[in-house]
Design brief:
By secondary structure, the protein is α+β, with helices and mostly antiparallel strands. The protein contains three helices and eight strands, in the order ββαββααββββ.
């Protein structure tokens, strides 16, 4: 069995952002040479998420609105976590959207449904962030 590990780095320009990272994960899969196995993709930050969904702008706007309704950024005083930092909402948003995804690898490809894509969701950005890709298989 082979194992592959790579960190993907992103310069996040906004506090909240959704990035389709599927092409970068597919590049990792090609680099790995693994044809059958599993691919783990996880956020390396407690205020970020990795999830699978459709790459449709309306849906992304719905995510933003829904998450903001559940855990609004302001007022910062709403969260007991906010003392040194102002990102209590980002921790909650990450919990809702999830930390990682595991994808099947079949015949050297991510074994996805027709509209599935991998996204990095950032909820406390404006700095450099990273994602771990770990692929195991044959």
């Amino acid at each position: 069995m082979k194992s592959y590990r790579k960190e993907l780095w992103f310069d996040i320009k906004q506090r909240r952002e959704f990035i389709n990272i599927t092409p970068k994960v597919e590049e990792c899969l090609r680099e790995s040479g693994i044809r059958e196995g599993l691919c783990l993709v996880n956020a390396m930050h407690i205020t970020a998420s990795v999830f699978i969904n459709d790459d449709e702008p309306g849906l992304h706007a719905d995510f933003e609105e829904w998450l903001e309704g559940l855990a609004p950024e302001k007022p910062y005083s709403r969260y007991r976590h906010n003392g040194y930092e102002d990102n209590g909402d980002a921790h909650l948003k990450r919990t809702i959207m999830g930390r990682e995804v595991v994808c099947a690898v079949t015949a050297g490809k991510l074994d996805f449904g027709p509209w599935e894509r991998i996204f990095y969701g950032e909820f406390d950005g404006k700095r450099r962030k990273r994602v771990l890709v770990k692929i195991i298989g044959e």
